[in-house]
Fold:
Amino acid sequence: MSRNKQDASGQQNIEETSVKNLSGMENRPASKAGPAIETRLIHGGDAEGDESKTLAPPIHMSSSFSFDTIGHAEEVMAFESSDYVYTRGNNPTLRLFENRMTRLEGGTAAVAFSSGMAAISSVLFSLARPGDTILTHKTVYGSTHTVTAKLLPRYGINSASVDLTDPSRLEEILEKDAGGRIKVIFFETPANPTLAVIDIKTIAEVAHCRQVTVVVDNTFATPYLQNPLALGADVVVHSATKYICGHGDAMGGVAVTGDSAYGFSLKFDYMCELGGVMSPFNAWLMLRGLKTLAVRMDRHVQNAGKAAEFLENHPRVRRVHYPGLASHAQFDTASRQMRGAGGMISFELEGNLADAKLFIDKLKIIKTAVSLGDCETLVQLPAAMTHRGYDRERLAEFGLTESMIRLSIGIEHGDDIVQDIAQALDA
Ligand SMILES: Cc1ncc(COP(=O)(O)O)c(C=O)c1O
Structure:
């Protein structure tokens, strides 16, 4: 059990728990190579030469930008200048958000999108051609599954779901792919909603031997807890709607890469032409959210550790999936590649679907909602909600059960979250 206490001021004192704080992130020193992530979250990619000197970045709510002369217009349209044309191509507030995300993920280019799904679908469209196959981990976010399993096949792009927690399986699959049809491997780590952790470095090594591109959805971990590009991934995508925004009030997505030429093509051949651009106001909200990402994530991790440990020790709970628990199947991988176990938990009750529904209905502070990464703790039933697009008959094959409950642990007081879970379990 967790031994957290309150001091006289009601502040939460986080003491030792049996949940591992993966690599001791609170003691992480600033890197000699440059500012630490806490500093980059606030200053990374700061714009030079803004005459207004506003401390908070201005929101450039303009769809178009004027040119000095027609010659200037021609120069900008030919990409000989980085001045602005039209917000669907670029905008100063969007550029600042993209530059900050580039610094945070350790890439060379980032593209902002209107939602996580706009980022994911554009990245997949940009990397695959008719006849190619996209390999995904067996569980990914429901809409990502719909795009790969149902939409892309209409354009001749096939997909297959495999268990990527076992990299030797991937080697076998790639070996059998004599025609070299597999061009992209896409996975989330931790995965939604099973919290499976996939070894980014090993998967990237295996994939790169066959010139396969690796795309990692880093939504659950955020750049604060995990940097897939540093571990060998080629592209990182985020639903910025979640932890990056942090307040559940704006949609957004972003893709980051270490390949500038690919980043340029993704921006101008896909985002710009397909049209899933982020609004400048949302980019400003994302920049505001990033400023507090480090402190929010620290609290999400502390509270989730406490809740996971409570659930694991509760007699009415059959199984808990949380990468910070030593019982998690990929605990060692999580310890190697993450700086904290994140704020997401999924679990199974002793009992059936009706018991899971009753538990959810009895929660008082915790709200039933589909999103995640907000300040509020949220609960949902993935098979009935976010992952509804999965074939009912094949749920087990995908590692899902109808009664799996997913929690997005918020930043309320950890004891209140645990007490709410406890009273609903008693009920
Ligand atoms: C892991 C993951 N990736 C992508 C998405 C899609 O993001 P958005 O809702 O911003 O389109 C979600 C949404 O829940 C998600 O959980």
